[in-house]
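Recall from the previous lesson that a structure prediction takes nothing but the amino acid sequence as input. Here we apply that procedure to Putative helicase from Octadecabacter antarcticus 307. The sequence below is the only information supplied.
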Amino acid sequence: MAFKTNISASTSTTNPAAHFKTLTKRQYPDVMPHQKDILEAYASDFADKSDVALQLPTGSGKTLVGLLIADWRRQKFGDRAVYLCPTRQLVNQTVNQALHQYGIDVVDLSGSTKKFAPADKTDFITGAKVAVSTYSGLFNTHPFFEDPDLIIVDDAHAAENYIANMWSLGIAAGTTLHLALSKFLHQHLDPQDHSRLTGDWIGSADANWVEKLSTPLVTKLEAGLSEIVDGHADIDTDAELYFKWSLLRGHLDACHVYLGSREILIRPLIPPTSTHAPFANAGQRIFMSATLGKGGDLERLTGRKAIDRLKAPDGFQNAGVGRRFFIFPSLSLTGDQTDGLRLAMQERSGRSLILTPSDAQAKAHTALVEKHLEDYEVFDKDDIELNKAPFVASTKAVAILANRFDGIDFPGDECRLLCVDGLPKAMNSQERFIMSKMGATALFNERIQTRILQAVGRCTRALQDRSAVLVTGVELVDFLADNRKWKHFHPELQAELTFGLDQSKNVTAESIFDNFDMFLKNGSDWSGADGMIRNSIGTFVQADFPAMDDLAKVAPHEVSYQEAIWNKNFTGALAEAKTILTHLNHSDLRGYRALWHYLAGSIALRLSESDLDAQAVSARLQFSKSRSAAPSISWLNALSRDVSGLEDEAGPYQNTEVLKQVEALEQQFLTMGTINNIKFEKRAAKIQGELSQANTFEAGQVALGTLLGFSAGNDESDAAPDPWWLGDKIGVVFEAHADGNETTVFGATKARQAAGHPKWIRKNVAGANELEVSPILATPCKTAKSGAEPHLEDVGYWELSSFRAWALHAVNVLRELKGTFPGEGDLIWRDEAVQKLISDGLSLEAIRSDRPMASAAMTIVA
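The prediction returns the following tokens.
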């Protein structure tokens, strides 16, 4: 047998663009001009940088750029290169493109290491071929890629959940570990929060509830928490729990514990990627993204302090890719009409794609399709993860993907109808906590925008592509229909949105369907519409997000903070936290500044040795500054429960009740949308109508309490009270006499029942066992029997007509607040709402204190 020739021994070229011409199996004569510019700039100015971000917008051919750099470095420098994709489906797609279009030899090293072919492993280890894998192929405790020289991260804007997942321990509700931790934490949580944690939800808003154990409390409980997880972390029964806990154990002081309605999440603020040798020790890491961002988000996502950026050629990044016809049915149609329209459009299009943020929404869409489109096949994300061919081959198919807004593309004729139902906003409990509890949405502006761009672009991947995008879900419609928000998109997308909004207002379902039909036919009618969009692009200008400069300055220090605290260098971590605070000056960062004051205080407290030393004093000062920076955040005001010495430093708002009421009110308003007040007015009208009638009065009370931000309910069982409104620590329960009149004499039996209602509430309502509940009699009656008097001494009195007048006033105040509501997490609005609720007597404290005792307000007769 003759010796093998060294087929890889060829003369290296000066840059990856020139390298492409040496690939004899390529299907293209040369790279495109913008690719050539990027590749040459990389070779001349960025080849020796440790961390590089390449801006490669959709349609720019980023896969070829990344693979060419990898193959060029493999040949020129002998690099062992690995190209990472978010999903197995994208790995397959990338491998096929490399082999059959670009003529680049690669090996697929995704999935189980045990199934890797020996030859493929050898090709990577010897540097003969570039490896293509998923993020999880590198980011795990025992990766096959132990010491790669070059790592290319595709779709880096989507990397956070994939990278951070390695250091994120999610403990699902209902598991034995979740039950054990819930029991352990019981005495440290408010009763209502513990009920939400264990699944006894008080209202629908609890489905999105999120809370955070304070860091000082986690420090106190670290040993107990670790012992519980140790007892459940068995490699044979739950390997994922075992390996993730092996990374987090001993580092709880560098992590945060989030409590949600569906899971407990333990994770660091920023993934400590410097501790993962295969990633940290690579000679170069290249992050390819459609947008580079200006606020340091890429550094936070990847845990790298400084990333050099190579932008797309001038003008290229401002162009759109393909054409999207946006449709907003909820601007003209009811929910049922919207569902009917979607189904009709799905039937007309043949193949369609639905993206939703949750499994629950995906199941609801699946049920609708299976009920009304019986001969259509439904595909979920698992069905098309490895191969989308069965979906594309079908003429009657609906792909319904939950929490997957990137990674699977359907260009060309593969899919012309994309339905996006819900905003891909917070993708984990940490993001949801920082946005909703801390009011720091500004931190995630770029990330949210990128997710939306990815979601609406799943079917437009090249200039010739086009798709209709049916937008539903209150928050997503609010975002895309509000030019204050989408002014940060590029001009072409703004033009598409404007056109879609104009076509969706004051129209019928039939009109929307006719426009969709013209879009599918792609005749002269749609050509005219497309011309209108193109002609309007020049009238739009893209605006930068606020506070980007401040966020960019602190990003390297945030990464350094995480590294220091992970390595138990608390002094260094405190110094980094203080440096961060010197740069967070923009008014939109009040909530984020409050978070960092809190983190600085937590570290100082960790360094203190007594309640009176300098670090303890510093900690209390930082906590006080935290609450001063964002006084309308209830979570910060509750710190005094876990940190001694804060009781007298509660700041501007000591009333946690009204702070939590405003947060709940905010969630109510979010469900109604910010584009208009139609849903609010419908609810307000219904409440007023129900309160005006005796037989519906109690239903109106429950609806009004919910609208006010209370946990409201009713129970028709024997001896149960009438409606109740509950807050954090206090509540009221009603005995309603809406069917009485002024001449009715209130008897002892009813009085005794009213006085006993608080006991019933504490015994029967989840999370209310420790609440201070006051009974209130809502009645037109002005007279009570002498036998009732002793029982009415602790029962408030609310004359019925006065209650109805108060309810009308309450709705008017809420209408005013709804009219100024700008969206989630606006701390200025929260401050104003707190003051308004207090001054107008709409807080639970005011409702309780403003009621006279019935024994004194009513005339007592024998």
